[in-house]
Amino acid sequence: MIKKIIITCTLVCMIVMVSSVSLAKTIDRGQRGHHVSKVQTMLKHQGFLHDSIDGIYGHNTEQAVRKFQKSKGLPVDGRVGPTTMNALEKMETRYGGHGTERNHNGVPNKYSKVLTMEASGYSSQDPGNGKYTATGSRLRKGLVSVDPKLIPLGTRLYIEGYGYAVADDVGGAIKGHRIDLAFDSRAEALQFGRQSVKVYIL
Fold this sequence. Notes:
Layout: H1 2-24, H2 34-45, H3 59-71, H4 82-95, E1 113-122, E2 143-145, E3 156-159, E4 163-169, E5 178-182, H5 186-192, E6 194-201
Parallel strand pairs: 1-5, 2-4
Antiparallel strand pairs: 1-6, 2-5, 3-4, 3-6
Helix pairs in contact: 2-4
């Protein structure tokens, strides 16, 4: 009888362990912990998440994952499976390879200069705007308009509240410490509005 109980307990433990491994492969809404914080940190670094990193996979984290998946041509389900995780880690290596953050704000620990600038949101859907930047890139999130006398075109940047970006566009009103941040839609640009931001030159 005792032997049967031991075997039964062993089987139950094994099933629980297999279930845990299976669950760990996919991170989605309702989960909490370090694995969620890791996902949130990568999303914040890459400009898809603007909330604080709290280790809770809630609505905003799910929406950030959906935006990331859409931007990379992945199936959009709001869940972080192996494919989405690999894509996140690949982008993290590409854009965050200068080092890990110092704090939960996602600020890179290596940069050459910090500027405080007045930022506005814009998009290709705004009246009078074209679909391409001054350098010929399709206007999208992650590209910004600068005064090339202050920030040369092609410069990699990290912008608090926006994420990693590249100086790729210019504008008649963009002079000195002014910067325009591209968004994928007019609604997102209007939501950002105008605000003072810290721009880290990488």
